[in-house]
Design a protein that fits this description.
Strand order of the largest sheet: 1-2-3-4-5
Distance between the termini: 56 Å
CATH superfamily of the largest domain: Ribonuclease Z/Hydroxyacylglutathione hydrolase-like
Shape: elongated
Length: about 250
């Protein structure tokens, strides 16, 4: 059994809010407690009801996922499990009466990011690797790295789930197609960055406008700049671009 409570923290980066997932009825795991808003925590508790919470699971340590974890864990006398807190390891299995949840280390959005495979339902809870209704998610240094992110998408694909539940937005009911779109989006962005550099645009602001367009929502400009830096760092690691005195350029071969 799966139930969902959406936290009251909507924003351009969280969409309609963080989804807190409750897996099981009698022996329950709570995934991504979300905000520490008392009404949200009360709503989660109401869904859990008389169930016993075996674990409070955190995909990563961003506040919109973890802020309510301590209060919820105390409320249910349950452990908080996360990679960052070293209370979770890759491959660890968590019990619920709806089947086990298996931790799957998936760095990229953050270094400590973890997804949870639910084999009994052929499902994956992907945290912030993917955003429901979108073809991209934020990967930004210093905590985000594009190479590990792409490897994490491949690891999710290898599980061949029938459904992927993101922490923001609706589920992906055609995971293979969604993963294809996510990978294509990254390849397209890399091509756009390389094209702009080839055209002689090497400064950050110029690259941002060339890649994301001058009409980019002002609220998204800062995260888009951070994402641009992730592309540049990734391309630098591939040996395709290099820094110059001011900005970047395509590396000569």
């Amino acid at each position: 059994m799966l139930r969902t409570v959406v936290a009251p923290n909507p924003s351009p980066l969280t969409l309609d809010g963080t989804r807190t997932y409750i897996v099981g009825r009698d022996r329950v795991a709570v995934l991504d407690p979300g905000s520490d808003d008392p009404d949200h925590l009360d709503a989660v508790a109401a869904v859990v009801g008389d169930g016993v919470v075996t674990s409070v699971l955190v995909t990563h340590q961003h506040p919109d996922h973890v802020a309510g974890a301590s209060a919820l864990a105390e409320r249910f006398d349950a452990p908080v499990r996360s990679l960052r807190g070293k209370t979770l390891r890759d491959g660890q299995r968590m019990e619920t009466d709806a089947g086990e949840l298996v931790a799957v280390a998936t760095p990229g959005h953050t270094t400590d990011h973890v997804a949870f495979h639910w084999p009994a339902e052929d499902a994956v809870f992907c945290g912030d690797l993917m955003m429901g209704g979108h073809d991209t998610a934020l990967v930004a240094p210093p905590e985000g790295r594009l190479g590990p992110y792409l490897a994490s998408l491949a690891r999710i694909r290898a599980l061949a789930p029938s459904v992927i539940y993101p922490a923001h937005g609706p589920p992906f009911l055609n995971p293979g197609q969604a993963l294809d779109r996510y990978v294509r989006h990254r390849a397209l962005r890399q091509e756009q960055v390389l094209r702009a550099l080839t055209d002689g645009i090497g400064d950050y602001e110029g690259l941002l406008d060339a890649v994301y367009g001058g009409e980019l929502d002002p609220e998204l400009r800062r995260p888009a700049m951070a994402a641009l830096k992730a592309y540049l760092e990734h391309l630098q690691g591939l040996g395709k671009v290099r820094r110059k005195a001011r900005g970047w350029e395509v590396r000569e071969r």
